[in-house]
Amino acid sequence: MSDAVDLARIQFATTTSFHFLFVMLTLGLVTLVAITQTRYTLSGNENRRETLSRMTRFWGHLYVINYALGIATGIVMEFQFGMNWSGLATVVGDVFGAPLAIETLVAFFLESTFLGLWIFGWGRLNKWLHLALIWLTALTAYASAFWIMVANAFMQNPVGYEVIGDGGDATVRLTDFGALLSNPMFGDALLHVVAGALVTGGVFMAGISALHFLRRTTEVEFFQRSLRLGLVTAAIAAPVLIGFGFAQFSTIDELQPGKVSEGGDAAAAAQAELVARYGPGDYITPEWANGLFGQMIEFGFLLTLALFAMVLMLFRGWLFRRRLPLRLLVVMIPIPFVAAISGWLFREVGRQPWLVYGLLRTEDAASHVSVGSMWVSLVVFTALFAALAVADWVLIARVARRGPAPAEAALPPRPVTPEPVAL
Protein backbone atom coordinates (compact mmCIF):
# COMPACT_ATOMS: atom_id res chain seq x y z
CA MET A 1 0.00 0.00 0.00
CA SER A 2 1.07 3.58 -0.57
CA ASP A 3 1.87 5.90 2.30
CA ALA A 4 -1.29 7.92 1.60
CA VAL A 5 -3.47 4.83 2.02
CA ASP A 6 -1.71 3.89 5.25
CA LEU A 7 -2.26 7.40 6.59
CA ALA A 8 -5.91 7.31 5.56
CA ARG A 9 -6.33 4.01 7.43
CA ILE A 10 -4.64 5.42 10.53
CA GLN A 11 -6.81 8.52 10.38
CA PHE A 12 -10.04 6.58 10.07
CA ALA A 13 -8.99 4.14 12.81
CA THR A 14 -8.24 7.07 15.12
CA THR A 15 -11.48 8.95 14.49
CA THR A 16 -13.61 5.79 14.61
CA SER A 17 -12.06 4.71 17.91
CA PHE A 18 -12.71 8.10 19.47
CA HIS A 19 -16.31 8.06 18.23
CA PHE A 20 -16.86 4.51 19.47
CA LEU A 21 -15.94 5.60 23.00
CA PHE A 22 -18.74 8.18 22.94
CA VAL A 23 -21.21 5.68 21.46
CA MET A 24 -20.63 3.02 24.10
CA LEU A 25 -21.26 5.41 27.00
CA THR A 26 -24.22 7.08 25.25
CA LEU A 27 -26.06 3.79 24.62
CA GLY A 28 -25.44 2.55 28.15
CA LEU A 29 -26.31 5.77 29.98
CA VAL A 30 -29.50 6.56 28.05
CA THR A 31 -30.85 3.13 29.00
CA LEU A 32 -30.08 3.64 32.68
CA VAL A 33 -31.59 7.14 32.64
CA ALA A 34 -34.77 5.75 31.03
CA ILE A 35 -34.99 3.02 33.69
CA THR A 36 -34.51 5.58 36.46
CA GLN A 37 -37.17 7.90 35.08
CA THR A 38 -39.57 4.96 34.70
CA ARG A 39 -39.14 4.12 38.38
CA TYR A 40 -39.65 7.79 39.26
CA THR A 41 -42.83 8.02 37.20
CA LEU A 42 -44.33 4.83 38.63
CA SER A 43 -43.32 5.40 42.26
CA GLY A 44 -45.99 6.46 44.72
CA ASN A 45 -43.59 7.19 47.60
CA GLU A 46 -42.82 10.93 47.69
CA ASN A 47 -39.34 10.55 49.26
CA ARG A 48 -38.39 7.84 46.80
CA ARG A 49 -39.75 9.93 43.93
CA GLU A 50 -37.55 12.83 44.95
CA THR A 51 -34.43 10.66 44.96
CA LEU A 52 -35.30 9.04 41.64
CA SER A 53 -36.04 12.43 40.10
CA ARG A 54 -32.64 13.71 41.15
CA MET A 55 -31.00 10.55 39.80
CA THR A 56 -32.73 11.07 36.45
CA ARG A 57 -31.51 14.64 36.19
CA PHE A 58 -27.97 13.97 37.42
CA TRP A 59 -27.24 10.95 35.20
CA GLY A 60 -29.21 12.56 32.37
CA HIS A 61 -26.92 15.59 32.60
CA LEU A 62 -23.86 13.36 32.14
CA TYR A 63 -25.55 11.56 29.25
CA VAL A 64 -26.38 14.82 27.45
CA ILE A 65 -22.78 16.06 27.76
CA ASN A 66 -21.44 12.85 26.22
CA TYR A 67 -24.11 12.82 23.51
CA ALA A 68 -23.54 16.44 22.47
CA LEU A 69 -19.79 16.04 22.06
CA GLY A 70 -20.21 12.63 20.45
CA ILE A 71 -22.32 14.14 17.67
CA ALA A 72 -19.34 16.15 16.41
CA THR A 73 -17.14 13.05 16.24
CA GLY A 74 -19.79 11.16 14.28
CA ILE A 75 -20.30 13.91 11.72
CA VAL A 76 -16.58 14.29 11.05
CA MET A 77 -16.18 10.53 10.76
CA GLU A 78 -18.84 10.27 8.04
CA PHE A 79 -17.22 13.13 6.10
CA GLN A 80 -14.14 10.94 5.76
CA PHE A 81 -16.02 8.43 3.62
CA GLY A 82 -16.16 11.08 0.92
CA MET A 83 -12.79 12.70 1.55
CA ASN A 84 -10.51 9.67 1.90
CA TRP A 85 -12.55 6.71 0.63
CA SER A 86 -14.32 7.90 -2.52
CA GLY A 87 -13.96 4.42 -4.03
CA LEU A 88 -16.29 3.06 -1.37
CA ALA A 89 -19.13 5.29 -2.56
CA THR A 90 -18.28 4.72 -6.23
CA VAL A 91 -18.27 0.93 -6.10
CA VAL A 92 -20.62 -0.08 -3.28
CA GLY A 93 -22.40 3.17 -2.47
CA ASP A 94 -25.74 1.80 -3.67
CA VAL A 95 -25.59 -0.90 -0.98
CA PHE A 96 -23.45 0.63 1.76
CA GLY A 97 -25.19 4.00 1.54
CA ALA A 98 -28.70 2.63 2.16
CA PRO A 99 -28.30 1.72 5.87
CA LEU A 100 -26.14 4.82 6.48
CA ALA A 101 -28.83 7.06 4.98
CA ILE A 102 -31.50 5.42 7.16
CA GLU A 103 -29.29 5.85 10.21
CA THR A 104 -28.71 9.52 9.49
CA LEU A 105 -32.18 10.58 8.36
CA VAL A 106 -34.28 8.45 10.70
CA ALA A 107 -32.32 7.41 13.76
CA PHE A 108 -29.97 10.37 14.18
CA PHE A 109 -32.43 13.20 13.52
CA LEU A 110 -35.25 11.54 15.46
CA GLU A 111 -32.94 10.85 18.39
CA SER A 112 -31.82 14.49 18.53
CA THR A 113 -35.43 15.70 18.29
CA PHE A 114 -36.69 13.43 21.05
CA LEU A 115 -33.73 14.32 23.27
CA GLY A 116 -34.29 18.05 22.76
CA LEU A 117 -37.95 17.70 23.70
CA TRP A 118 -36.96 15.66 26.75
CA ILE A 119 -34.42 18.25 27.91
CA PHE A 120 -36.69 21.26 27.57
CA GLY A 121 -39.87 19.42 28.52
CA TRP A 122 -38.84 18.72 32.12
CA GLY A 123 -41.63 20.12 34.31
CA ARG A 124 -43.53 21.38 31.27
CA LEU A 125 -44.88 18.18 29.71
CA ASN A 126 -47.19 15.52 31.07
CA LYS A 127 -45.11 12.99 33.04
CA TRP A 128 -46.12 10.08 30.78
CA LEU A 129 -45.29 12.01 27.63
CA HIS A 130 -41.97 13.05 29.14
CA LEU A 131 -41.22 9.42 30.04
CA ALA A 132 -42.11 8.34 26.51
CA LEU A 133 -39.60 10.86 25.13
CA ILE A 134 -36.62 9.37 26.99
CA TRP A 135 -37.59 5.87 25.88
CA LEU A 136 -37.98 7.08 22.29
CA THR A 137 -34.54 8.67 22.60
CA ALA A 138 -33.13 5.35 23.78
CA LEU A 139 -34.89 3.36 21.06
CA THR A 140 -33.65 5.66 18.30
CA ALA A 141 -30.13 5.46 19.74
CA TYR A 142 -30.32 1.68 19.42
CA ALA A 143 -31.81 2.08 15.93
CA SER A 144 -28.75 4.13 15.01
CA ALA A 145 -26.46 1.34 16.25
CA PHE A 146 -28.63 -1.17 14.36
CA TRP A 147 -28.14 0.49 10.95
CA ILE A 148 -24.46 1.18 11.52
CA MET A 149 -23.92 -2.50 12.26
CA VAL A 150 -25.94 -3.45 9.15
CA ALA A 151 -23.51 -1.37 7.07
CA ASN A 152 -20.47 -2.78 8.87
CA ALA A 153 -21.71 -6.36 8.48
CA PHE A 154 -21.89 -5.80 4.70
CA MET A 155 -18.24 -4.74 4.77
CA GLN A 156 -17.40 -7.93 6.69
CA ASN A 157 -19.53 -10.20 4.50
CA PRO A 158 -21.12 -8.61 1.41
CA VAL A 159 -24.59 -10.03 0.64
CA GLY A 160 -27.70 -9.02 -1.29
CA TYR A 161 -25.94 -7.46 -4.30
CA GLU A 162 -25.04 -7.93 -7.93
CA VAL A 163 -22.05 -6.59 -9.85
CA ILE A 164 -22.75 -4.28 -12.78
CA GLY A 165 -20.04 -3.79 -15.41
CA ASP A 166 -16.54 -5.20 -15.73
CA GLY A 167 -13.05 -4.41 -14.55
CA GLY A 168 -12.32 -0.99 -13.12
CA ASP A 169 -15.78 0.32 -14.05
CA ALA A 170 -17.67 -2.36 -12.12
CA THR A 171 -20.14 -1.19 -9.49
CA VAL A 172 -22.35 -3.01 -7.01
CA ARG A 173 -26.13 -2.72 -6.92
CA LEU A 174 -28.44 -3.72 -4.07
CA THR A 175 -30.79 -6.55 -5.04
CA ASP A 176 -31.99 -7.95 -1.71
CA PHE A 177 -32.40 -5.56 1.23
CA GLY A 178 -33.57 -8.42 3.44
CA ALA A 179 -30.24 -10.16 2.96
CA LEU A 180 -28.53 -7.23 4.69
CA LEU A 181 -30.68 -7.81 7.79
CA SER A 182 -30.08 -11.57 7.81
CA ASN A 183 -26.33 -11.27 7.26
CA PRO A 184 -24.55 -13.88 9.47
CA MET A 185 -22.04 -11.18 10.50
CA PHE A 186 -24.78 -8.86 11.76
CA GLY A 187 -27.04 -10.25 14.51
CA ASP A 188 -24.54 -11.60 17.06
CA ALA A 189 -22.23 -8.61 16.51
CA LEU A 190 -25.06 -6.12 17.16
CA LEU A 191 -26.11 -7.84 20.39
CA HIS A 192 -22.45 -8.03 21.43
CA VAL A 193 -22.13 -4.25 20.98
CA VAL A 194 -25.41 -3.56 22.82
CA ALA A 195 -24.39 -5.72 25.76
CA GLY A 196 -20.99 -4.00 25.80
CA ALA A 197 -22.68 -0.61 25.94
CA LEU A 198 -24.82 -1.69 28.92
CA VAL A 199 -21.71 -2.95 30.70
CA THR A 200 -19.96 0.35 29.96
CA GLY A 201 -22.84 2.48 31.22
CA GLY A 202 -23.37 0.29 34.27
CA VAL A 203 -19.71 0.28 35.30
CA PHE A 204 -19.55 4.04 34.74
CA MET A 205 -22.58 4.65 36.99
CA ALA A 206 -21.33 2.28 39.68
CA GLY A 207 -17.80 3.71 39.54
CA ILE A 208 -18.93 7.33 39.91
CA SER A 209 -21.19 6.33 42.78
CA ALA A 210 -18.32 4.46 44.47
CA LEU A 211 -16.16 7.56 44.13
CA HIS A 212 -18.69 9.58 46.11
CA PHE A 213 -18.76 6.94 48.86
CA LEU A 214 -14.96 7.13 49.06
CA ARG A 215 -15.35 10.90 49.48
CA ARG A 216 -17.80 10.22 52.34
CA THR A 217 -20.82 11.70 50.61
CA THR A 218 -23.89 12.73 52.56
CA GLU A 219 -26.07 11.62 49.62
CA VAL A 220 -26.08 8.02 50.85
CA GLU A 221 -29.47 6.89 49.52
CA PHE A 222 -28.90 8.60 46.16
CA PHE A 223 -25.61 6.87 45.45
CA GLN A 224 -26.68 3.56 46.98
CA ARG A 225 -29.52 3.38 44.47
CA SER A 226 -27.25 4.51 41.63
CA LEU A 227 -24.52 2.03 42.51
CA ARG A 228 -26.99 -0.86 42.75
CA LEU A 229 -28.60 -0.01 39.41
CA GLY A 230 -25.29 0.35 37.58
CA LEU A 231 -23.68 -2.71 39.13
CA VAL A 232 -26.65 -5.05 38.61
CA THR A 233 -27.13 -3.85 35.02
CA ALA A 234 -23.46 -4.44 34.21
CA ALA A 235 -23.48 -7.85 35.93
CA ILE A 236 -26.52 -8.97 33.93
CA ALA A 237 -25.13 -7.68 30.62
CA ALA A 238 -21.58 -9.06 31.08
CA PRO A 239 -22.35 -12.77 30.46
CA VAL A 240 -24.57 -11.74 27.53
CA LEU A 241 -21.61 -9.80 26.15
CA ILE A 242 -19.33 -12.83 26.45
CA GLY A 243 -21.93 -15.21 25.04
CA PHE A 244 -22.56 -13.22 21.86
CA GLY A 245 -18.82 -12.64 21.51
CA PHE A 246 -18.07 -16.36 21.42
CA ALA A 247 -21.14 -16.98 19.23
CA GLN A 248 -19.35 -15.11 16.42
CA PHE A 249 -16.32 -17.43 16.32
CA SER A 250 -17.80 -20.11 14.07
CA THR A 251 -19.17 -17.50 11.65
CA ILE A 252 -15.81 -15.72 11.48
CA ASP A 253 -13.93 -18.99 10.89
CA GLU A 254 -16.33 -19.85 8.06
CA LEU A 255 -16.54 -16.47 6.32
CA GLN A 256 -13.14 -14.95 7.14
CA PRO A 257 -10.62 -17.78 7.47
CA GLY A 258 -7.34 -16.62 8.92
CA LYS A 259 -8.87 -13.76 10.91
CA VAL A 260 -8.54 -15.53 14.26
CA SER A 261 -5.11 -17.04 13.87
CA GLU A 262 -2.43 -18.31 16.24
CA GLY A 263 0.09 -18.86 13.49
CA GLY A 264 1.59 -22.19 12.52
CA ASP A 265 0.17 -24.66 10.04
CA ALA A 266 -3.45 -23.43 10.40
CA ALA A 267 -2.45 -19.88 9.46
CA ALA A 268 -0.34 -21.12 6.53
CA ALA A 269 -3.25 -23.22 5.26
CA ALA A 270 -5.65 -20.28 5.53
CA GLN A 271 -3.19 -18.00 3.72
CA ALA A 272 -2.77 -20.52 0.90
CA GLU A 273 -6.55 -20.95 0.56
CA LEU A 274 -7.15 -17.20 0.36
CA VAL A 275 -4.31 -16.63 -2.12
CA ALA A 276 -5.83 -19.29 -4.35
CA ARG A 277 -9.24 -17.64 -4.05
CA TYR A 278 -8.35 -13.93 -4.29
CA GLY A 279 -4.81 -13.72 -5.65
CA PRO A 280 -1.56 -12.53 -4.02
CA GLY A 281 -1.82 -10.71 -0.68
CA ASP A 282 -1.35 -11.01 3.07
CA TYR A 283 -4.64 -12.29 4.46
CA ILE A 284 -3.60 -13.24 8.00
CA THR A 285 -4.45 -10.87 10.85
CA PRO A 286 -1.35 -9.12 12.26
CA GLU A 287 -0.02 -10.45 15.54
CA TRP A 288 -0.69 -7.16 17.36
CA ALA A 289 -4.36 -7.24 16.34
CA ASN A 290 -4.69 -10.81 17.61
CA GLY A 291 -3.10 -9.56 20.82
CA LEU A 292 -5.87 -6.99 21.16
CA PHE A 293 -8.39 -9.77 20.57
CA GLY A 294 -6.91 -11.78 23.44
CA GLN A 295 -6.82 -8.68 25.64
CA MET A 296 -10.52 -8.08 25.01
CA ILE A 297 -11.39 -11.63 26.09
CA GLU A 298 -9.26 -11.41 29.23
CA PHE A 299 -10.79 -8.08 30.25
CA GLY A 300 -14.26 -9.47 29.63
CA PHE A 301 -13.80 -12.46 31.93
CA LEU A 302 -12.02 -10.50 34.67
CA LEU A 303 -14.66 -7.78 34.59
CA THR A 304 -17.48 -10.34 34.79
CA LEU A 305 -15.93 -12.10 37.79
CA ALA A 306 -15.39 -8.78 39.57
CA LEU A 307 -18.98 -7.67 38.90
CA PHE A 308 -20.43 -10.94 40.21
CA ALA A 309 -18.30 -10.72 43.37
CA MET A 310 -19.44 -7.15 44.01
CA VAL A 311 -23.10 -8.00 43.43
CA LEU A 312 -22.78 -10.60 46.18
CA MET A 313 -21.28 -7.91 48.41
CA LEU A 314 -24.41 -5.79 47.98
CA PHE A 315 -26.21 -8.10 50.37
CA ARG A 316 -26.24 -6.66 53.90
CA GLY A 317 -24.58 -3.53 52.53
CA TRP A 318 -21.03 -4.91 52.71
CA LEU A 319 -19.99 -3.18 49.51
CA PHE A 320 -20.81 0.29 50.83
CA ARG A 321 -18.65 -0.24 53.94
CA ARG A 322 -15.50 -1.64 52.28
CA ARG A 323 -13.10 0.81 50.69
CA LEU A 324 -11.19 -1.76 48.62
CA PRO A 325 -14.12 -2.86 46.40
CA LEU A 326 -15.22 0.77 46.10
CA ARG A 327 -11.74 1.67 44.86
CA LEU A 328 -11.87 -1.25 42.42
CA LEU A 329 -15.16 0.03 41.02
CA VAL A 330 -13.55 3.40 40.33
CA VAL A 331 -10.52 1.74 38.70
CA MET A 332 -12.83 -0.42 36.58
CA ILE A 333 -14.43 2.57 34.79
CA PRO A 334 -11.99 2.64 31.81
CA ILE A 335 -11.83 -1.16 31.38
CA PRO A 336 -15.01 -1.55 29.24
CA PHE A 337 -13.77 1.27 26.98
CA VAL A 338 -10.37 -0.39 26.50
CA ALA A 339 -11.97 -3.78 25.82
CA ALA A 340 -14.43 -2.25 23.33
CA ILE A 341 -11.71 -0.48 21.34
CA SER A 342 -9.58 -3.64 21.35
CA GLY A 343 -12.46 -5.66 19.93
CA TRP A 344 -13.37 -3.04 17.36
CA LEU A 345 -9.80 -2.73 16.07
CA PHE A 346 -9.54 -6.51 15.78
CA ARG A 347 -12.82 -6.68 13.82
CA GLU A 348 -11.68 -3.99 11.37
CA VAL A 349 -7.97 -4.76 11.02
CA GLY A 350 -8.71 -8.48 10.70
CA ARG A 351 -10.72 -7.74 7.53
CA GLN A 352 -7.67 -6.35 5.71
CA PRO A 353 -6.60 -6.11 2.94
CA TRP A 354 -10.30 -5.70 2.15
CA LEU A 355 -12.49 -2.67 2.73
CA VAL A 356 -15.44 -4.84 1.64
CA TYR A 357 -14.39 -8.44 2.18
CA GLY A 358 -13.65 -10.26 -1.06
CA LEU A 359 -15.16 -7.45 -3.12
CA LEU A 360 -13.23 -4.18 -2.73
CA ARG A 361 -9.63 -3.86 -1.59
CA THR A 362 -8.69 -1.02 0.73
CA GLU A 363 -6.07 0.38 -1.63
CA ASP A 364 -8.61 0.45 -4.50
CA ALA A 365 -11.16 2.37 -2.42
CA ALA A 366 -8.81 5.15 -1.28
CA SER A 367 -9.18 8.64 -2.76
CA HIS A 368 -6.35 10.11 -4.82
CA VAL A 369 -5.00 12.38 -2.10
CA SER A 370 -1.37 13.42 -1.72
CA VAL A 371 0.71 12.25 1.23
CA GLY A 372 1.14 15.84 2.39
CA SER A 373 -2.61 16.46 2.42
CA MET A 374 -3.17 13.22 4.32
CA TRP A 375 -0.62 14.24 6.95
CA VAL A 376 -2.35 17.60 7.40
CA SER A 377 -5.81 16.06 7.75
CA LEU A 378 -4.49 13.34 10.06
CA VAL A 379 -2.92 15.87 12.42
CA VAL A 380 -5.92 18.21 12.31
CA PHE A 381 -8.55 15.52 12.86
CA THR A 382 -6.54 13.76 15.56
CA ALA A 383 -6.06 17.04 17.41
CA LEU A 384 -9.76 17.88 17.03
CA PHE A 385 -10.93 14.50 18.30
CA ALA A 386 -8.43 14.56 21.15
CA ALA A 387 -9.73 18.01 22.15
CA LEU A 388 -13.33 16.73 22.07
CA ALA A 389 -12.38 13.69 24.15
CA VAL A 390 -10.56 15.87 26.72
CA ALA A 391 -13.47 18.32 26.82
CA ASP A 392 -15.88 15.43 27.33
CA TRP A 393 -13.78 13.99 30.15
CA VAL A 394 -13.33 17.38 31.86
CA LEU A 395 -17.03 18.28 31.71
CA ILE A 396 -18.18 14.83 32.82
CA ALA A 397 -15.60 14.76 35.63
CA ARG A 398 -16.66 18.22 36.82
CA VAL A 399 -20.37 17.37 36.90
CA ALA A 400 -19.71 13.92 38.39
CA ARG A 401 -17.57 15.33 41.21
CA ARG A 402 -20.09 18.05 41.97
CA GLY A 403 -22.82 15.49 42.49
CA PRO A 404 -26.62 15.84 42.22
CA ALA A 405 -28.60 19.04 42.47
CA PRO A 406 -30.13 19.95 45.85
CA ALA A 407 -33.34 18.15 46.70
CA GLU A 408 -35.56 21.18 46.24
CA ALA A 409 -34.43 21.55 42.61
CA ALA A 410 -35.11 17.96 41.62
CA LEU A 411 -38.85 17.55 41.24
CA PRO A 412 -40.65 19.22 38.36
CA PRO A 413 -42.30 22.46 39.47
CA ARG A 414 -45.94 22.14 40.41
CA PRO A 415 -48.45 24.51 38.83
CA VAL A 416 -49.26 27.40 41.12
CA THR A 417 -52.91 28.28 41.64
CA PRO A 418 -53.27 32.07 41.88
CA GLU A 419 -54.91 33.51 44.96
CA PRO A 420 -58.37 34.99 44.36
CA VAL A 421 -58.31 38.73 44.03
CA ALA A 422 -60.95 40.70 45.92
CA LEU A 423 -62.81 43.17 43.75
UniProtKB/TrEMBL annotation:
Q: Where in the cell is it found?
A: Cell membrane
One Pfam family from the record = Cyt_bd_oxida_I
Q: Which GO terms describe its biological process?
A: aerobic electron transport chain
The answer, when asked if Iron is one of the entry's keywords, is yes
Which keywords does this chain's UniProt record carry? Cell membrane, Electron transport, Heme, Iron, Membrane, Metal-binding, Transmembrane, Transmembrane helix, Transport
UniProt name for this protein: Cytochrome d ubiquinol oxidase subunit I
Q: Name one GO molecular function term.
A: heme binding
Give the family per the record: Belongs to the cytochrome ubiquinol oxidase subunit 1 family.
One GO term describing the cellular component: plasma membrane
Organism of provenance: Herbihabitans rhizosphaerae
Classify the protein's membrane topology as the record does: Multi-pass membrane protein
